[in-house]
Amino acid sequence: MGTLSKKMKAAVAQYDNSKTYSLPEAASLVKKITSTKFDASVDLAVRLGVDPKKSNQMVRGTVSLPHGTGKDVRVLVLCTPDKEAEARAAGADHVGLTEYIDKIKGGWTDVDVIITTPSVMGQVGALGRILGPRGLMPNPKTGTVTMDVGKAVTEKKAGNIDFKVDKAGIVHASIGRVSFDATQLAENASELISTLVKLKPSAAKGTYMKSIYVSSTMSPSVQVETKSVS
Questions:
Q1: How far apart are CA 60 and CA 24, in angstroms?
Q2: How deeply is 150 buried, as exposed, middle or buried, from its count of CB atoms within 10 A (0-12, 13-18, 19+)?
Q3: Over the stretch 141-179, which tens digit does the pLDDT of each residue have?
C-alpha cells in the first residue's frame, strides 16, 4: 500500500486498530473511514477454528441477507428447454444450455451465479476447471443444482449469498455497500455470523469464532469483538 492520502489519514485517525468493536460500531466506522467516489462493497472476514482440509470440518452454505447485497446479481441458468420459461420469468439474465457451455469453454464467465438442474449436471461438470476456481460451480448444498430453478433465481437475485471456508479457515463474504446504513450492514453481518454458528462442525475443537473483521474495498479492517456476536 503506497502513501496514504490526506483524506485516508484523517479517516484512519478516527479509530483505534488495536481495539475491538461491536458489530454496529464496526459498521459505522467502516462507513466513516471509506472515502471513495464509488459505492464500495462492505465485506466480512470470519476466521473459524476449523481445519478445512478435513471434510468433516468444511463449512459452506447459503444465507439470505435481510437487506440484500446492494449488488445486481447476474444469473445464468443452464437447463433443458422445458425449464427455460420458468427461469426467464424469475428474472434470470441468461438462459440456455449448449451455446452457454460452449461460451464458457471459450473462457466466458461474465456472471455471478450459475444455476442448473440435476439432469444437465453431467454436462456442466465438464466445466469444473473453468468454473471451480471462480467459485461459479453449481452445487446442491448452495441451492444452485435444483429442479426448482425459478425459486433459486429469485433467491439469488434477492441477496441470497453462498459462502465457503477457504484454505486458511476464513469465510469472506460481501454484506452490502457503503451506502447502506450501519444498522443494515450490522443486521446483514449478524445473519451471516449466526448461520456460521449453526453450521459449526461437531469435529471442530477449541474456539470456533476466532476473529471477525469488517472492511470495505477501500478501507482498513475493523475488528469485531467476537463475544458480542456469538
A1: 25
A2: buried
A3: 888 999 999 999 998 888 788 899 999 999 999 999 999
